[in-house]
């Protein structure tokens, strides 16, 4: 049992580390992160979020969002805000918590806009667009990358809906053919 728990803890720790160092988060994995004295405890608390009981995790996440907002403008502030956003949808911790996380990420992106990645919006913009689209939070961010990320999500959803409709239509046609053959 201890081996399973240790293995799980190691995997969780590596996952969070990958999130914090992810090139998709707009930062390079090779880059050594130097946390300030104010950032380090926040990063450590983010790493430990998955280990918290659900009834504690929502409030801890909300408080972390507020603490991140109070940090000075640095690349780590955006890194922390994005990491928190990526973890915030793992469960159902309430709309208030999600709103605080989204507000924090939007503020960090306003303070430190990122360049697009290979003609696509940087991952933090996509993360924010997903929070807006799927978690129904409200943010204001006048940034072309955010607008593209929202538009891409809407287009992708429309394509999926069309594919679902076409699949259903095909299934109905097949059933009609089967019934015609069977009941002749």
Question: How is this structure best described in words?
Answer:
This protein is mainly alpha-helical and 184 residues long. It has one domain (2-182). The chain is 70% helix and 0% strand. The protein has 7 helices and no strands. It has helices at 2-21, 39-47, 54-69, 75-88, 95-111, 123-135, 144-182. α4 (75-88) runs antiparallel to α5 (95-111) and α4 packs parallel to α6.
Give the SSE order as H and E letters.
Answer: HHHHHHH
Number of helices, where a helix is a run of at least 4 consecutive DSSP H or I residues:
7
Regions with little confidence, pLDDT below 50 for 5+ residues: 1-28
pLDDT average, as an integer? 82
Strand fraction equals under 5%
Shape, per Cα inertia axes: globular
Sheet bearing the most strands, described? none
The whole-angstrom Rg is 21 Å
Distance between the termini: 62 Å
Total domain count = 1
**Oligomer designation:** single chain
Structural class: mainly alpha
């Amino acid at each position: 049992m201890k081996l399973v728990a240790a293995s799980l803890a190691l995997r969780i720790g590596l996952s969070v580390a990958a999130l914090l160092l992810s090139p998709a988060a707009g930062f390079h994995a090779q880059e050594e992160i130097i946390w300030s004295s104010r950032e380090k405890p926040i990063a450590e608390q983010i790493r430990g979020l998955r280990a918290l009981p659900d009834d504690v995790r929502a409030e801890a996440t909300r408080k972390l969002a507020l603490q991140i907002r109070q940090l000075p403008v640095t690349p780590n502030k955006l890194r922390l805000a994005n990491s928190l956003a990526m973890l915030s949808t793992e469960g159902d911790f309430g709309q208030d918590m999600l709103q605080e996380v989204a507000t924090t990420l939007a503020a960090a992106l306003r303070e430190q806009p990122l360049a697009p990645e290979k003609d696509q919006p940087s991952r933090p913009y996509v993360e924010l667009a997903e929070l807006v689209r799927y978690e129904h939070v409200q943010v204001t961010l006048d940034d072309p990358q955010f607008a593209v990320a929202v538009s891409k999500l809407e287009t992708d959803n429309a394509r999926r809906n069309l594919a679902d409709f076409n699949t259903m239509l095909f299934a109905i046609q097949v059933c009609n053919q089967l019934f015609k053959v069977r009941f002749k």
